[in-house]
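Lab notebook, design round three. We kept the backbone fixed and only want residue identities now. Task for the bench partner: fill in a sequence for the structure below.
Input structure tokens:
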């Protein structure tokens, strides 16, 4: 089974009452909704979102629109450097971050849901 990897920038937000304690951004998914009280909670949210996107890869064009190359036999994920990922995170949240973690999320590609 094929595995895909995405990068997640996780940081403590300076306004936790508004954004939650930890926030994240995944440049490969352009996903900034991963938020929670712990890093693990944030990672799990993004992991679940990635699984859902992969399951629906034939029904929706979200991943294609984000630059993913998906064929019947392979999935190629766009590549971002750590510096690009941090810069995109800062742009997304409109903050400067200095204390962050970059977490790699590896997911075994699930079977695609059948189109009705």
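Proposed sequence:
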């Amino acid at each position: 089974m094929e595995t895909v990897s995405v990068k997640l920038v996780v940081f403590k937000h300076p306004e936790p009452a508004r954004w939650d304690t930890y926030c994240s951004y995944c440049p490969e998914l352009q996903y900034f909704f991963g938020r929670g009280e712990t890093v693990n909670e944030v990672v799990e949210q993004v992991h679940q979102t990635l699984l859902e996107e992969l399951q629906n890869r034939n029904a929706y064009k979200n991943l294609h629109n984000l630059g993913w190359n998906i064929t019947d036999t392979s999935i190629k994920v766009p590549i971002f450097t750590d510096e690009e990922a941090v810069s995109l995170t800062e742009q997304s949240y409109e903050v400067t971050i200095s204390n962050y973690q970059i977490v790699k999320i590896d997911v075994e590609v699930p079977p695609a849901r059948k189109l009705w």
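Keep this in mind before ordering anything: Helices lie at 16-19, 39-55, 62-65, 82-93.
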